[in-house]
Amino acid sequence: LAAMSVKEVLQSLVDDGMVDCERIGTSNYYWAFPSKALHARKRKLEVLESQLSEGNQKHANLQKSIEKAKVGRHETEERTMLVKELSSLQDQREQLKAEVEKYRECDPQVVEEIRQANQVAKEAANRWTDNIFAIKSWAKRKFGLEENKIDKNFGIPEDFDYID
């Protein structure tokens, strides 16, 4: 049980990079040099210092950008009035957009599209009406049925005709 604990602790140290392991023949050899940990900490310190200097540089650049942006943007009565006016105009624009959307179906282009779609639907309906009349004619010739019986059996209304 104790040997198992030592093996687990040793494997944990190897996984954390604090101890090195090498298999030589049938044996595993473990070692740790004090200088390795020192070098690892130095590398980590260098990385953190470079990140800190980059962060400080970004901060300085952003401060400069803020200062540039503030030029000519002092809070004055005129600026406050203009901001309020801009806000009200944006609200008015949104209301007008909503109103235009309400009357969209009155748009000549939309009306023309609807008219064309209606024309296509009308032509399709008349084409199918043509097909139904052709089938009725064929059924009358082939089976000698009366037209009103065909209409009744297939649920064709009496006023069935082409669309004008």
From TrEMBL:
Q: Which GO terms describe its cellular component?
A: nucleus
Source domain of life: Eukaryota
What GO annotations for molecular function exist for this entry? Answer: double-stranded DNA binding
Protein name (database record): Meiotic nuclear division protein 1 homolog
Principal subcellular localisation of the protein? nucleus
Check the record and name the Pfam families matching this protein.
LZ3wCH, Mnd1
Q: Which protein family is it in?
A: Belongs to the MND1 family.
Domain (Leucine zipper with capping helix): residue spans on this chain: 110-163
Location comes to: Nucleus
- Keywords in alphabetical order: Coiled coil, DNA recombination, Meiosis, Nucleus
Question: Does this UniProt record's set of keywords contain Secreted?
Answer: no
All copies of the Mnd1 HTH domain together span 3-34
Q: Name one GO biological process term.
A: reciprocal meiotic recombination
- Coiled-coil stretches noted in the UniProt entry, renumbered to this chain: 45-131
Under InterPro entries, the record lists: LZ3wCH, Mnd1, Mnd1_HTH
Keyword Coiled coil applies = yes
